[in-house]
Amino acid sequence: MSRVEPARGTLLVLGDSLAFHGPRGPHPSDEARLWPNVAAARFGATTELIAGLGWTARDAWWALTRDPRCWAALPRTRAVILAVGSMDTLPSPLPTALREAMRYLRPDGLRRRVRAGYRRLQPSLVRMLDGRPVALPPRLTVRYLEDCRAAIAALRPDLPVIAMLPSVHRAAEYALVHTGHARAVAAVRSWGARTDTPLIDLPTLVRGHLDAGSGNPDGLHWGWQAHQDVGVAVAELLTATAGRDRAVRLDDAVGARPIDVACAPDHGGSPPTAQRALG
Q1: Is the bond preceding residue 107 a cis peptide, omega within 30 degrees?
Q2: Which one of 21, 128, 171, 230 is at 20 to 30 Å from 85 when CA atoms are compared?
Q3: How much of the chain, in percent, has pLDDT values that exceed 90?
């Protein structure tokens, strides 16, 4: 991987598989057609993508607090994109902890049989349970999004942070059922308004693309046109958000204390704000 150019800065993207899957499957994070790289190119930055298959907002919080790549990226980051929340809305007939524990089954043959059996039964179970429960309830999605936002604000109060409304799917694996989507969208939208966090409207951007069959055959991930559309929308929102935040900071600076006083260290003995936020 080439070194980041400090003058350009980085877009730190905490994402799920929608950030690195194309029309035929997963790609290395430096694939130029992936939406994070489309956004970064238009924003004049490089990309630091930290993402995983099936990641929810909880996984993003774990990455932010446990992954040293996040800690290294934050000082040179120009903006953070919380690109999680979509997988939270997917039906999960088996509780998430049990479903994820399948990977630890041994011997290998048993693990493969259990996984194959679950995949075979999942569509029927989703229909029977009407898409409930979901991978992560909306109240927890919002909680972890806010934990991420607050921690980043404690470390870098100057840093623009945007998030996304959960995407839609047309996946046979989930029996085309998406019962939990509307509640999740409402919860994330409410959180965004409450915290003044700008949101990308993924459903509007990708619904027609998926309905037309232009995405990945799995009905969940996107084709390159959707990646392009999302990347352009992200770059435009980042540009608008960065401009707004600069204007606010200039307004706040009027009548500010001299810099040597404003930046004086706190000798009160309390732990640093960032430590409290991430600790």
Answers
A1: yes
A2: 128
A3: 82
Cβ atoms of residues 13 and 48 within 8 Å: yes
Helix (H, G, I), strand (E, B) or coil at 79: strand
Per the document, the length of the chain is 279
Which residue in 50, 60, 122, 53 sits closest to 85, CA to CA? 60
Task: Indicate the average pLDDT of the chain.
Answer: 88
C-alpha distances out from residue 185 to 33, 150, 204, Å: 27, 20, 12
E strands, 198-257, where? 199-201
pLDDT digits (tens, 9 = 90+) for 54-106: 999 999 999 999 999 999 999 999 999 999 999 999 999 998 889 989 999 99
Cβ atoms within 10 A of the Cβ of 214, count? Answer: 15
* Domain locations along the chain: 10-91+132-278, 94-128
pTM of the model: 0.85
Superfamily covering domain 10-91+132-278: SGNH hydrolase (3.40.50.1110)
Distance in angstroms (rounded) separating the CA atoms of residues 277 and 207? 37
- Given a contact cutoff of 8 angstroms between Cβ atoms, the answer to whether 135 and 92 are in contact is yes
